[in-house]
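Please fill in the sequence for the structure shown.

STRUCTURE ENCODING:
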């Protein structure tokens, strides 16, 4: 769980550069980052809105286990 200070800093960065804020929270190769980058290229305001949504409401801890689990048949 991120502290309030971390979330506040990520929100400030997301307002200035939306993909960078998402990158700090979810990583550079995540789906959230790619969507945010595309939305920011298409329009700055949709990129900010999506970045704030991803930072505040999407929990990365619940997905970390799935990302790091090895593929098993």
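FILLED IN BY: designer on duty
SEQUENCE:
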């Amino acid at each position: 769980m991120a502290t309030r200070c971390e979330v506040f800093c990520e929100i400030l960065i997301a307002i200035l550069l939306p993909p960078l804020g998402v990158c700090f929270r979810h990583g550079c190769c995540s789906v959230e980052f790619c969507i945010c980058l595309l939305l920011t290229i298409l329009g700055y305001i949709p990129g900010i809105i999506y970045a704030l949504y991803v930072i505040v409401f999407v929990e990365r801890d619940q997905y970390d286990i799935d990302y790091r689990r090895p593929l098993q048949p």
